[in-house]
Write a structure and sequence with these properties.
Layout: H1 11-15, H2 38-53, E1 59-66, E2 69-80, E3 85-86, E4 93-94, H3 99-112, E5 134-135, E6 141-142, H4 150-155, H5 166-171, H6 180-187, H7 205-217, H8 221-233, E7 254-255, E8 263-264, E9 286-287, H9 289-300, E10 304-305, E11 308-309, H10 313-319, H11 326-329, E12 336-339, E13 343-346, E14 361-365, E15 369-374, E16 379-384, E17 387-388, H12 395-406
Parallel strand pairs: 7-17
Antiparallel strand pairs: 1-2, 1-16, 2-3, 4-9, 5-6, 7-8, 10-11, 12-13, 13-14, 14-15, 15-16
Helix pairs in contact: 2-12, 3-7, 3-8, 6-7
Length: 409
């Protein structure tokens, strides 16, 4: 299999154009310059090529940054098997649940501006939430023990359900063809699965947060993201739909089964090549590895990237530490908690995967994307492919293990 090595011409080509007055961050360096072993990083490329050759994925893009510099960026395989389009560092991917972190950053910007408090009831801004009820085991319903707060939405302790849950599918809660207001109307009609604040339950709550961002800011959700996050950070390829210019770079999702050839896999009724009515803060964005590297580095830097400040350092510190109580942590596995940034965070390294450090955080998307930040080693890894299942052969974990081994000092 031919290795499709990333070509480093100009920083703006790799990582997106930024404002002229801002310093260009994330410049390319040799791995040794930031304490990374080349041999271990080469094994990441070998691993990706092995998965492509075995038809477990069609292609992938992976980046590793350390100490604010990019030490590794590889594009392997194809983004479209039928056409034969090669994967490149600018290939565009559905990032699904990685969208949640972008939405959380948007909410925290407005928290800094005093538009709300984390303890505020959601019904103060969305009166529809005044009518929610809790489902009992016998099928009856009752009022919740307390109101859902903004913090509940960020920590997934509101009692809401996952977007693909049976109850939401049966009630028709989610469709990319409806508006955010319609989504809110739909979601409050379905009973909560638990009282607010009593259980961690991963959910569609960030899409509700997107509607709240509109109310707090007076802007459309996509316009707020572009003006306050995506534009300032130079995330030129991140949005809620694929533009005409991006179509030639848009990776196809493939389903893999042992012993069978990869086949295109349709996930959405309204494809990402169409502008959706629903600006979905939980799962709606497309992006690239270089774009999400910029967002991740901003968080690792404490809210700043190349002189452009998105959040205060104290806010980033608050949103990248565990926010769940000891009793709520019982619903999480692998030594991990959950943070306001909508990331899984390591709270018990002994119970986490080998080599994990307390405070490292990550999240992924249901079509095969992930970002991982380890503040203790100043390391960021962004991996993107498009597949179902999203993590064939535990490829994400294998890459993280190789990167940990590559950290020499």
């Amino acid at each position: 299999m031919e290795k499709l090595r990333a070509v480093w011409l100009w920083p703006c080509v790799l990582l997106g154009a930024v404002a002229a007055e801002a310093q260009e961050p994330l410049s390319r360096v040799a791995p040794e310059a930031v304490g990374l072993e080349v041999q271990q990083l080469d094994q990441v490329t070998d691993l990706l090529e092995q998965f492509v050759a075995q038809q477990r994925i069609a292609g992938a893009v992976v980046a590793v940054a350390r100490r604010g510099r990019v030490a590794y960026l590889e594009a392997v395989g194809l983004q479209d098997l039928e056409i034969g389009t090669r994967m490149t560092e600018r290939s565009v991917f559905r990032i699904y649940s990685m969208s949640k972190t972008v939405t959380a950053v948007a909410a925290m910007i407005l928290l800094e501006e005093g538009r709300f408090q984390l303890s505020d009831p959601v019904l103060n801004f969305l009166p529809e939430f005044g009518d929610v009820v809790v489902l009992e085991e016998d099928g009856s319903t009752r009022p919740p023990s307390r109101a859902i707060t903004i913090e509940d939405l960020l920590l997934h302790t509101a009692g809401l359900s996952h977007r693909s849950s049976r109850e939401y599918r049966e009630a028709g809660v989610r469709s990319r063809a409806i508006t955010l207001s319609e989504f809110v109307d739909n979601i409050v009609r379905v009973p909560l699965r638990s009282d607010p604040g009593t259980r961690y339950r991963y959910s569609a709550a960030p899409t509700v947060l997107g509607r709240l961002v509109e109310i707090w800011s007076g802007q459309r959700f996509d316009e707020f993201l572009e003006q306050r996050i995506l534009g300032p950070l130079g995330m030129v390829d991140t949005r809620f739909w694929v533009t005409d210019e991006q179509r030639g770079r848009f990776a196809t999702v493939y389903a893999s089964s042992e012993g069978e050839a990869l086949r295109p896999h349709r996930i959405e009724e309204v494809p990402f090549t169409q502008r959706p009515a629903l600006l979905e803060g939980a799962v709606g964005l497309v992006s690239t590895v270089p774009d999400f590297l910029r967002l991740s580095q901003m968080l690792l830097n404490g809210g700043d990237l190349g002189g452009v400040r998105i959040l205060r350092a104290s806010t980033v510190s608050r949103m990248t530490r565990n926010g769940l109580t000891e009793s709520l942590l019982a619903n999480r596995r692998g030594g991990s908690g959950w943070a306001l940034a909508n990331v899984s965070i390591v709270v018990d390294p002994d119970a986490a995967e080998e080599g994990a450090h307390a405070g490292e955080y990550r999240w992924d998307g249901s079509a095969g994307t992930e970002f991982w930040v380890d503040p203790s080693t100043e390391t960021i890894v962004v991996t993107m492919w498009q597949s179902s299942p999203a993590n064939p052969g535990r490829l994400r974990q294998q890459i993280r293990a190789l990167v940990r081994e590559a950290i020499a000092r």
